[in-house]
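Key result, reporting period 2: structure in, sequence out.
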């Protein structure tokens, strides 16, 4: 199980999610590290919204990878 978790972590580190909208460009890894950030003179609110969108996308990637790993939580619960 630990080996699978380590592999999942490695896969998430290799994932790249890019949001480029409304004057904001963000590249975030699947393990939610901001890799690139560009603000082309937009408001703080717009930047916050785009950061949250990128984080949500990375969470969705992690959830998909987790569910594919031994049946997700069902595998952990013995179901």
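The corresponding designed sequence is given below.
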């Amino acid at each position: 199980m630990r080996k699978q978790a380590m592999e999942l972590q490695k896969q998430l580190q290799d994932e790249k999610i890019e949001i480029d909208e409304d004057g904001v460009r963000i590249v975030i890894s699947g393990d939610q590290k901001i890799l690139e950030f560009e603000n082309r003179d937009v408001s703080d609110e717009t930047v916050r919204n785009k950061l949250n969108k990128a984080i949500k996308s990375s969470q969705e990637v992690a959830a998909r990878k987790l569910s594919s790993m031994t049946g997700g939580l069902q595998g952990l619960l013995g179901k």
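DSSP finds three helices and three strands in the chain. Helices lie at 2-14, 44-68, 73-77. This case is discussed further under Risks and Mitigation.
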